Amino acid sequence: MTQIDSLTLGITKEYPVIKAHGTECRDATVEVCTESRIIFSLNGSIVGDLSITPLDLEAFAIGYLICEGYICSREEIKEITINLPDISVKTNTGAVPSGQFSKNSSGGSCRELLPGSTPNPLQDGFVLYAETILNSMDKVNDYSVIWKRTGGMHCSLIIDEHGSVISGVEDMGRHTTVDKAVGMALIKGTDLSRCYLVCSGRLPVDMVAKAYRAGIPVMVSNNAAFAGGIDFAKKANMTLAGFVRPPNMTIYTGGQRILFP
């Protein structure tokens, strides 16, 4: 994969600091992630006010609208205009969205996830070997380029059934990595129902719901799932696995999609 010159792109900045180790102190320079405010509007109505790493913004715009349930396909998008802090999208329908929108640093909003809601379950038929999933963790490490230098990023990958990476991104927010990875995969014309999503970080309900709205049947992480995420995945017939750290994983739901020798 291509290495990112994050300093040149303005994704990181360098700061002079004092590093302490026990009673010893020394001057040092550290690389720190930047953030940008995004005011996201759809057909003239604001649907998001959040912080994001200023990278892969077209992919983010597409993925955000899909993962938050505002549109069902990329073909609905007529125009994307990016002029930070504003991202403006127009669709063919020109519909004005309503309801709750994202207003935080991570991009998760739980739109339409009221207590007692019942999502239409995803279909069975897609299966993965456990070994393929376990091998994905090395790929997360490969794509966590800026995280290795700063410790301030999350990573998400969309991977096909053969274990090939379709899209891989870093961002300051867990949720926005999902948006960007989904958008990149859709730009490539990927059938997301034949892919799985690998994330760094925890899996609450709004993270799981993003994958569901994108039609991704399997979601895994090297970290823990939350009760809300597990309950939603069960209702949606999704496969959810956490603590994926070779040779171990914890399968919370949808074990029928994971094959063991």
Automatic annotation (TrEMBL):
<keyword id="KW-0963">Cytoplasm</keyword>
<comment type="similarity">
    <text>Belongs to the FdhD family.</text>
</comment>
<dbReference type="GO" id="GO:0006777">
    <property type="term" value="P:Mo-molybdopterin cofactor biosynthetic process"/>
</dbReference>
<protein>
    <recommendedName>
        <fullName>Sulfur carrier protein FdhD</fullName>
    </recommendedName>
</protein>
<dbReference type="GO" id="GO:0097163">
    <property type="term" value="F:sulfur carrier activity"/>
</dbReference>
<dbReference type="GO" id="GO:0016783">
    <property type="term" value="F:sulfurtransferase activity"/>
</dbReference>
<dbReference type="InterPro" id="IPR003786">
    <property type="entry name" value="FdhD"/>
</dbReference>
<dbReference type="GO" id="GO:0005737">
    <property type="term" value="C:cytoplasm"/>
</dbReference>
<comment type="function">
    <text>Required for formate dehydrogenase (FDH) activity. Acts as a sulfur carrier protein that transfers sulfur from IscS to the molybdenum cofactor prior to its insertion into FDH.</text>
</comment>
<feature type="active site" description="Cysteine persulfide intermediate">
    <location>
        <position position="110"/>
    </location>
</feature>
<keyword id="KW-0501">Molybdenum cofactor biosynthesis</keyword>
<dbReference type="Pfam" id="PF02634">
    <property type="entry name" value="FdhD-NarQ"/>
</dbReference>
